[in-house]
Design brief:
single chain; alpha/beta; Rossmann fold; five-stranded parallel beta sheet; 7 helices
Length: 195
């Protein structure tokens, strides 16, 4: 049993270290929150894309905006490009998996929108191609990546290269940052504190 406890303790310690280090990126997280709020204030839509666990985070955060996070307010336009199985499979079948996000963004996005791409490696080809499509359409881009140098940073207006020794710790930093972004953007958009 102690070997299992040791592994669990080590994993929790790695997460705690990464989350503590994430505090050093508060200004970057605030800049992303400002960009989200500005986009929504100006009538734009927030789009999110990523693979695997990052895909789940995309739909989680889209729901925080269309529903609510901590403040009672009107629903806000946020779309996870990871959730429409018909679009994902049709585009993947006809154009290849690398195009699943770019093609949806081409269909739904417009100048003045914002795309957040999430990837622990920062090198997901389908997210990079979505960034390229966003640039063509005049859509601003935010990247949430892991700590290693990555290709997604090159195509982003703002990049949060989250700390973490392992992918799970990076993902935990991403969701903590995204929740902070929701909270600050909601405050900015409503002018009221959560009760």
């Amino acid at each position: 049993m102690s070997q299992k406890v040791d592994k669990i303790t080590a994993a929790l310690d790695a997460s705690a270290r990464a989350l503590k280090e994430l505090g050093q990126y508060a200004e970057t997280i605030a800049a992303i929150a400002d960009k989200v709020a500005e986009t929504l204030k100006n009538g734009g839509t927030l789009f999110l894309c990523g693979n695997g666990g990052s895909a789940a985070q995309c739909q989680h955060i889209a729901a925080e905006f269309t529903g609510r996070f901590r403040i009672e307010r009107r629903g806000l336009p946020a779309v996870s490009l990871t959730t429409d199985t018909s679009a994902l499979t049709a585009i993947g079948n006809d154009y290849g998996f690398d195009q699943v996000f770019a093609r949806q963004l081409e269909s739904l996005g417009k100048s003045g929108d914002l795309l957040i791409g999430i990837s622990t490696s920062g090198n997901s080809k389908n997210v990079i191609l979505a960034f390229e499509k966003a640039a063509e359409l005049g859509i601003a881009v935010v990247a949430l990546t892991g700590p290693a140098p990555c290709k997604m940073a090159d195509g982003a207006d703002i990049c949060l290269a989250a700390p973490g020794e392992v992918a799970s710790a990076v993902q935990e930093c991403h969701i903590a940052a995204l929740h902070s972004i929701c909270e600050v953007a909601e405050l900015d958009l409503t002018g009221q504190e959560a009760s």
